Structure formats: structure tokens, C-alpha cells
């Protein structure tokens, strides 16, 4: 999920014009990469082996409304999980 989250935020940062929200989205992507690194470090320290696989990413439909709805749903799902 950390891999998926970082990829979604990187994509969203690229899609936005260069502005404060796009830079904030890029910073969130970097945070997600840090989470991935911390989790990987814990897994290795526990004797595990890292697997860099993720499910196929679903960004929603190509139209703006469908895309934004998908991002909204992803954020809400993440809030519920945590
Ligand atoms: Fe995360």
C-alpha cells in the first residue's frame, strides 16, 4: 500500500500545474516513500525478505470528475484504515 500510495501521489503531482498544491502532493509522495523504507527496514530486521510488488493501480476514469472521485475514494479508504 505504501508503494501504491507513493505512485498515486507522484502521478497527481505531475498532473497538476506547478503550484503549491502540486508541491505539497509531491512532498506527500516522498513521505509515502519514507513509510515504505521504514516498513522495509522493519521487515528486514525481523528476518523477512522485501517484495516490491503491488496490485495494479486504478486511477479511475480518464475524465476529470471520475478521476477526482477515485482520488476522493482512495483518501477516504485510507482514513478509515488508519
Ligand atoms: Fe504511508
H/E topology pattern: HHH
Number of domains: 1
Radius of gyration, in Å, reads: 14 Å
Q: Given the helix and strand composition, which structural class is it? A: mainly alpha
Rounded average pLDDT? 90
Q: Can you tell me the residue ranges where pLDDT is under 50 for at least 5 consecutive residues?
A: none
**What ligands are attached or bound here?**
fe (ii) ion
Quantity of strands, as a count: 0
Oligomer: single chain
Overall body shape: globular
Task: Kindly state the percentage of residues in helix.
Answer: over 70%
Distance between the termini: 12 Å
Q: Hey, roughly how much beta strand do the residues contain?
A: under 5%
Biggest sheet descriptor = none
Secondary structure tally, helices = 3
Protein name: Ferritin/DPS protein domain-containing protein
Organism: Candidatus Argoarchaeum ethanivorans
Written account of the structure:
The chain is an all-alpha fold. The chain has helices at residues 2-15, 20-45, 64-81. α1 (2-15) runs antiparallel to α2 (20-45). The two termini are 12 Å apart. It has one domain (2-81). It is 71% helix and 0% strand. The structure holds fe (ii) ion. It comes from Candidatus Argoarchaeum ethanivorans. This is Ferritin/DPS protein domain-containing protein.
Amino acid at each position: 500500500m505504501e508503494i501504491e500510495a507513493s505512485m498515486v501521489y507522484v502521478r497527481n503531482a505531475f498532473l497538476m500545474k506547478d503550484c503549491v498544491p502540486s508541491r505539497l502532493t509531491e512532498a506527500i509522495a516522498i513521505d509515502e516513500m519514507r513509510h515504505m523504507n521504514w516498513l522495509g527496514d522493519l521487515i528486514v530486521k525481523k528476518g523477512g525478505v522485501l517484495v516490491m510488488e503491488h496490485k495494479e493501480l486504478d486511477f479511475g476514469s480518464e475524465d476529470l470528475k471520475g478521476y477526482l472521485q477515485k482520488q476522493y475514494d482512495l483518501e477516504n479508504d485510507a482514513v478509515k484504515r488508519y
